Amino acid sequence: MSASIATSQTILVVGGGIAGMTAALEAAECGRQVILAEKQPMLGGRTALLYRYFPKMCHPVCGLEINLRRLRGNPNVRVMTMTEVTAVSGRRGDYTVTLKTRPRYVNENCTACGDCGNAVSTTIPNPANYGLDKIKAAYLPHGMAYPQRYVIDPSIVGTAEGEQAKAACKAGAIDLGMQEETVTLKAGSIVWATGWRPYDAAKIQPYGYGRIANVVTSVEFERMADPHGPTGGKLLRPSDGQEAKNIAFIQCAGSRDENHLRHCSRICCMASLKQTQYVREACGEDGRSTIYYIDIRAIDRFEDFYQSVQNDPTVRFIKSKVARIALDEQSGNPILHGVDTEGAHRYANAHDLVVLAVGMVPEVTGVALPEDILLDSSNFIEGSQSGGMFGAGSAASPLDVNRSVQSATAASLRAIQVIHQTASTEAV
Amino acid sequence: MTTANQTARAKYENDFLKEVEANVEEGHWVRMCMQCGVCAGSCPLGDAWAHPPQKLFMMIRAGKREEVLSSDAMWMCTSCYNCIVRCPRKLPITHIVHGLANYAHRLGLAPKGQPTRQTAALFWNNLVKKGRVNELKFSLALYFKDGFGQGIKNALGMQAVGLGLVKAKRLNPMEILGGHGIENLSGFKAMIDKAREIEDRKKGLAG
Q1: What CATH number has the domain bearing residue B41?
Q2: Fewer CB near the terminus (10 Å): N or C of chain A?
Q3: CATH code, A291
Q4: What is the 3-state secondary structure (H, E, C) of B109-163?
Q5: Do residue A229 and residue A338 come from a single domain?
Q6: Chain B contacts of A338, Cβ < 8 Å?
Q7: DSSP secondary structure of A66-130
């Protein structure tokens, strides 16, 4: 797209996950011009990587599809994938933004036929499955990917395989000469919907993530349960591929901990409660889920869901922060050590698989942001001093999908207000 | 008018919690404990304790003064610091536990004959006499703490080690006659007395 389209009445939304898509669409449907910049090659963010939502246990595909349909039908939103914001200058109502777009090496002629993928043999860790499996270096990010267009990994560009992929493309969509592009745009208001990333579980040293194969994170478990995931939806142990039936969930893995993340990540209790139902789905009455917790924070109307899981005889709750995990070399079983604070019983419980309910780290952690941006002590975006930029979704606070959408709608409205004020000032 | 919350709060705002907060070293941290149990699970002594830290803190908040101060749990701590390292609220657990032990000892409520307590008392009494530890006297005091007969047995059992130390000039048998002190003994004693005075004031034991 050409840079001249954006004016000081344009809203820039940074991040194309559920919050960014929502913020962009709400503003666009109010008639505002929106640029939606996404770092990944596709929209949907981490929401697209979920198997099911709590509490209704429905699939994210449904909600994403509705949003993608809204997006396709709305000429006011310009989507820029593989694009990051590198600089912001100016002020409320008149920002100048520099965006950097990485080359996809595939243009809009792509029909997503898959011939390039078939022509290539090099594989890369699959980002859509948190690297749990491999995909071809010419790939469609995932089935729901928007834009529905392949990506050529830079590792095969300039190699014979890159040329093979290009030769295989009947649509003439592969352009191996694509270069990184930088554009400068105007925007009146900016919504930061930059989302979150899972806390690095390897930093929680006593839990052995990275050392013990059968200790995985909640986001990895989410992919394992998904039919499109690395195990085809089967709950298989990474160590030996055996079916995992006796699964432990450790809450507050990183969250509510002065040594790791100070904040409560809010979603993890509900996520683990939800994931116990994946175990039931996979193993029926033979499944065993054990939740190790400090206290269960099923906020708001989720208490009902909590109670229904409590009534599930395959789910057990142990009030204890696990002290450490040891490995039983022979069986590959992780052994959880700790004290059940209800009665102060010491335990050493063996499980087939351990799921660490990892906390949410704002994706902007460690990133240089405009000076005007206000962050809280956990790096969530509170807003900006001049009120021209807003945080939305899990960039603003640890939120689930539902609340991210609410937060994004609110941020969108505030951004529209800024544009309105700018427009009326300009009219005078 | 009191709400259920206020009633519950009053129950836990008992005198013993206030006493611990005021008088025990680092005691003001006790109310910060969220009862996750990671300290109890991380303690390498495990079952040796009747009351792991998390349980001690809950007992303090429940006002169980006698049970806490007469517990031998605080005396089992080896200061490995595992609990401090893992505590998600960064409570100085090891220090609180030692603070509780010291407080119970000063009040005379700590368990009689508890070996760690006995050893600590012998060490301290030995140290303050001359400003340095008389190792020979300290060893002998330890050998004989459980009676004369047992003392002779202990001493004979350690005979070879003792002679070895003498030969290697690591142990002077003449130290038995009182032993040498530090240069400025009266200055040292004045310092200890002052420290005791400050401590007593802090622990509410003065006068």
Answers
A1: 1.10.1060.10
A2: C
A3: 3.50.50.60
A4: CCCCCCHHHHHHHHHHHHHHHHCCCCHHHHHHHHHCCCCHHHHHHHHHHCHHHHH
A5: yes
A6: 37-38, 40-41
A7: HHHHHHHT-TTEEEE-SEEEEEEEEETTEEEEEEEE---SB-TT-----HHHHH---EEE-GGGT
Q: Does B164 touch chain A (CB under 8 A)?
A: no
The chain B residue lying nearest A206, using CA atoms, is B86
- Burial call A14-37: b when 16+ CB within 10 Å, e when fewer: bbbbbbbbbbbbbbbebebbbbbb
Contacts of A392 (CB under 8 A, 6+ apart): A13, A19, A20, A22, A23, A191, A192, A193, A404, A407, A408, A410, A411, A412
Closest partner residue to A206 (CB to CB) among B40, B55, B86 is B86
Query: B88, A319: Cβ pair inside 8 Å?
Result: no
In a shared domain, residues B99 and B27: yes
Cα–Cα distances in angstroms (integers) from residue A316 to residues A144, A296, A337, A359, B35, in the given order: 35, 13, 16, 22, 19
- CB neighbour burial string for A245-270, b if at least 16 within 10 angstroms, e if fewer: bbbbbbbbbbbbbeebbebbbbbbbb
In this complex, how many residue pairs, one in chain A and one in chain B, have their CB atoms less than 8 Å apart?
63
Chain B residue with the nearest C-alpha to that of A337 = B41
> In which domain, by residue range, is B94 found?
4-106
Residues of chain A positioned with their CB less than 8 A from the CB of B38: 321-323, 338
Q: Do B40 and A206 touch (CB under 8 A)?
A: no
Q: Chain B: residue nearest A344 by CA? A: B55
pTM over 0.95: no
Nearest-by-CA chain B residue for A319: B36
| Nearest residue in chain B measured CA to CA from A261 | B88
Q: Which of A3-7, A160-164, A412-416 has the weakest average pLDDT? A: A3-7
Share of chain B above pLDDT 70, in %: 97
Nearest CB partner across the interface for A339, out of B52, B85, B89: B52
Strand order in the sheet with A83-91: A83-91, A94-101, A181-187
Q: What is the mean pLDDT of residues B13-28?
A: 90
Domain count for chain A, please give it.
3
At residue A43, the 3 state secondary structure works out as coil
CA A379: distance to chain centroid?
17
Parent domain of A72? 3-102+180-195+363-427
Check CB contact of B106 with chain A, cutoff 8 Å: no
Q: What tens digit of pLDDT does each residue of A379-394 get?
A: 999 999 999 999 999 9
Q: Are residues A145 and A214 in the same domain?
A: no
Test the B interface: residue of A341, A342, A349 with most B CBs within 10 Å: A341
C-beta atoms of A259 and B86 within 8 A: yes
pLDDT, tens digit, 9 for 90 and up, residues B73-99? 999 999 999 999 999 999 999 999 999
For chain A, what's the residue count?
Answer: 428
